[in-house]
Design brief:
There is one protein chain. The chain has a single domain, classed as 2-Layer Sandwich (Beta-Lactamase). Helices cover about 35% and strands about 20% of the residues. The protein contains five helices and five strands. A five-stranded antiparallel sheet has the order 2-1-5-4-3, with helices on both faces. Strand 1 and strand 2 form a beta hairpin. It is globular and about 40 Å long. It binds 2-acetamido-2-deoxy-beta-D-glucopyranose (2 copies). One 2-acetamido-2-deoxy-beta-D-glucopyranose binds next to helix 2. The site of one 2-acetamido-2-deoxy-beta-D-glucopyranose (NAG) has 4 residues, from loops. Pfam families: CCB2_CCB4. InterPro entries: CCB2/CCB4, CCB4. Keywords: Signal.
Length: about 150
C-alpha cells in the first residue's frame, strides 16, 4: 500500500490519496485541506456523505474510472472538500462495487493514460485484498449495519 503511494507521488502529479470502502474512510494520505474547526489538522473525510454524492454514484453506476482532468469544470468538486484547494485534476476509481479511490493531482490534465491504466490495475488488486480481509476479520458493528 505504501509503495503504491510512493510510486504515485514520485511518478505522477498525484498529491492526495483517499480510499473509501463500505461507508468508511480506509486511508487518507498526502496533502489534505485544513479542517475548518480544527486548525492545523486535516479535514476529516465524511465517507457516508461522499458515497452519497453524485461523483461516487456516477462511478458506481458506470463501474469505470472517471478522470476529472480539469477539476474546475466539475460542480461535483464540492463533494471533495477534503482535497487541498490547489487540486487541479482528480481520478475517481471504483474499488469493486463497495468503494472507491480518490486521487488528487496538482496539475490540470496531469495524469497520463498510463497513470490511469496503472491506477485501474492497482484498484483491482486492492479490491481483492480488501475483500479477503473483510471475509476474515469481523468488522465493527457500525460497519456491518450501514444506516
Ligand atoms: C444521502 O442523500 C439523501 C437524499 O439526498 C439524504 O436524505 C441523506 O441525508 C444523505 N445522507 C448523507 C449521509 O449525506
Ligand atoms: C480549465 O477550466 C477553467 C474553467 O473553465 C478554464 O478557465 C481553463 O482554461 C481550463 N484549463 C485547461 C488547461 O483546459
Amino acid at each position: 500500500m505504501l509503495r503504491m503511494w510512493e510510486f504515485l507521488l514520485e511518478a505522477t502529479c498525484c498529491r492526495s490519496l483517499v480510499i473509501i470502502y463500505n461507508g468508511a474512510c480506509l486511508l487518507q494520505i498526502g496533502v489534505a485541506a485544513e479542517s475548518s474547526t480544527d486548525a492545523g489538522n486535516a479535514m476529516v473525510v465524511d465517507a457516508a456523505k461522499v458515497m452519497n454524492g453524485t461523483l461516487y454514484q456516477g462511478v458506481k453506476k458506470s463501474g469505470a474510472q472517471n478522470y476529472l482532468a480539469n477539476l474546475s469544470l466539475y460542480p461535483g468538486r464540492s463533494e471533495l472538500p477534503f482535497l487541498p484547494s490547489n487540486t487541479q485534476a482528480v481520478i475517481l476509481q471504483p474499488l469493486g462495487d463497495k468503494g472507491f479511490i480518490i486521487i488528487g493531482g496538482d496539475t490540470i490534465r496531469g495524469f497520463t493514460s498510463s497513470d490511469q491504466a496503472w491506477i485501474t490495475l492497482i484498484s483491482e488488486k486492492l479490491d481483492s485484498t480488501i475483500s479477503k480481509l473483510e471475509a476474515n476479520i469481523p468488522l465493527p458493528i457500525q460497519d456491518r449495519f450501514p444506516s
